Amino acid sequence: MATEVKxxxxxxxxxxxxxxxxxxxxxxxxxxxxxVVELETDKATVEVPAEAEGTVEKVLVKQGDxxxxxxxxxxxxxxxxxxxxxxxxxxxxxxAPAPARAAPAPVKAAETTRAAEGVKTPMESPRKDPxxxxxxxxxxxxxxxxxxxPAAPSVRRLAREIGVNINSVKGTGPHxxxxxEDVKRTAKQMLAGAVTAVGSSPGxxxxxxxxxxxxxxxxxxxxxxxxxxRKKTSEQMTLAWTTIPQVTQYxxxxxxxxxxxxxxxxxxxxxxxxxxxxxxxxxxVLASALKRFPDFNSSLDLETQEIVYKKFFNVGVAVDTxxxxxxxxxxxxxxxxxxxxxxxxxxxxxxARDRKTSMEELQxxxxxxxxxxxxxxxxxxxxxxxxxxxxxxxxxxxxxxVWDGAQFVPRLILPLSLSYDHRLxxxxxxxxxxxxxxxxxxxxxxxxxxx
Length: 451
Fold this sequence. Notes:
By secondary structure, this protein is an alpha+beta fold. It has 8 helices and 20 strands. It has helices at residues 153-161, 180-194, 228-243, 256-271, 278-292, 338-353, 427-442, 445-450; strands spanning 2-6, 16-22, 29-30, 35-40, 44-49, 54-59, 66-68, 72-77, 92-95, 246-254, 298-301, 306-309, 315-317, 319-321, 324-326, 329-330, 367-371, 390-394, 398-403, 408-421.
């Protein structure tokens, strides 16, 4: 009996993948663990095993094909008797290979004071929630008639807070009066419109279409398909920018003493298999900050009109790779010491650059660090990565003269940029959060003292 080898479930919101390579042909012998097809999803390269033992009877796909979850890739005749079809195949994911790419990683994508960094990290990451326009929603929202909307002040305030134009809401009450439920319904319609897929990706935002001129009139051009990590980055950045009212708070901290401590402890970290970087230290600082400021460890659920507070502490770290920006996630940061975090961060960064990051290692972040310090610049505005509430940007540190009360002395100053979702976090809270992080870096004993 022939067994069909089907494309397994590849993770949340992934409906299909592109065939990069078919590794077997009709007549080849395979075992259950034999990799038969290599695929590329939005985030990773996936190796699909045969999950059956026997002889390849027929290959149903070829390089370049787009296949969907559950679609048959080939048939295998032989001893498995179709048992593999009853098993849920587990694909091994690794990071996407670098196609001939054009542009460097952008600002959602995600991660570092590279003078001390072992993890390459340019760019930042994004996030998701209520859009301010329909973005092509199949449900039309009524246009304003020019007359004042019939709504109570409390209803108008609700509309303002969740980003809905009160004049675009159709009231269902007496004489068209607008109720809170009408406002919430309109917000859901707007969200449904904003999360209209580009292509087949269910979570993608439909960006406005802009007609480009014929660039070939002025010189030679070339084109490449938008796919893989670059496509996912484009979609996620559009989602973040169109759905989150973002604000960036800037601050600076004096890390002169911290840098001396980091350098002195670096040999210990290397013996433990890691590299003691500013990013590794920031992982621990951020976990402590999230405990003290729970609003930063939350997500907004517009469907239920609830705020979800997380009781775990996972931190994403943006890594610059040949295929684009990826954000592997360090899990349970609060339960690990800085030496352990250094080793784990080093390993995750290496896996990301070597295209071996699994899908699980790219999910579950509460907040993200994006460090551009190794490249340069004085400050930047990272984009919040949905559904997170904030992202911390790190720029290059430099020596500056600081007045100590009697004279100017050279001090190492680190610029930080905190972007946050203003629906969940107020400006004063963001300033306190970032100042606490600066204090923890300036006074390392504070972490042990306050936790």
